[in-house]
Design a protein that fits this description.
With 189 residues, this protein is mainly alpha-helical. It is built from 4 helices and 4 strands; from the N terminus they run E-E-E-E-H-H-H-H. A two-stranded antiparallel ribbon has the order 1-4. Strands 2-3 form a two-stranded antiparallel sheet. The chain is rod-shaped and about 110 Å long.
Length: 189
């Protein structure tokens, strides 16, 4: 697997069949000056994916690639200073920063809970209702209520037990919903 590559240009750089970049100065006033031209290539598939973070954010820097460029530039300066007979080679102190991140105008000031939160808040009672309805139908199919009547349990006590179970279940789901809303720091909570 190739991570990084350095291509040194000696005569000219063929970009395409019709386009080439010379590796020497073409203007006469710079004749005799030495130009060192190189290109750095890196494996873009090793970079983190920008799919989740959004398209408006710039590609993150690769610190190893920046370190490689810094090392190459300082090595070139050292080699040139040895050729000229300098005792101490100049060095480049490099710092780099990220590009500014532009805020997205599509979601600026948007509150997802205010716009679509009602759909999520209705799901909790809807889930409770379907579970209770399923249990009542199951008791009807198994004729459990008639069995309770034989034992002497009245219809009022039967429905009060279901009411208590419903309150406990709704309280548990509501508490989970409120705790989750607080953990996610939704404004409504």
């Amino acid at each position: 697997m190739t991570w990084y590559g350095v291509v040194w240009c000696t005569t000219e750089w063929d970009v395409s069949p019709n386009v080439s970049i010379p590796c020497t100065y073409s203007s006469p006033e710079y004749a005799g000056r030495k130009m060192i031209f190189y290109s750095l290539f890196y494996n873009n598939s090793l970079e983190p994916s920008m799919f989740i973070s959004g398209f408006h954010k710039p590609t993150p820097r690769d610190p190893k690639l920046m370190q490689l460029k810094h090392s190459i530039d300082n090595s070139i300066l050292k080699q040139l200073s040895l050729e000229k007979g300098l005792e101490e080679a100049p060095t480049i102190d490099m710092t780099h920063g990220v590009y500014p991140i532009v805020s997205s105008r599509m979601i600026q000031g948007m509150n997802i809970i205010a716009s679509t939160g009602s759909y999520f808040f209705i799901l909790t009672p809807l889930l409770s209702f379907t579970i209770f309805l399923n249990e009542v139908v199951r008791e009807k199919e198994l004729k459990l209520r008639q069995g309770l009547s034989v034992v002497g349990v009245s219809h009022g006590v039967y429905w009060i037990s279901w009411f208590i179970v419903g309150i406990v279940f709704s309280a548990m789901t509501s508490i989970v919903l409120v705790i989750t809303g607080n953990l996610c720091q939704f404004d409504i909570f």
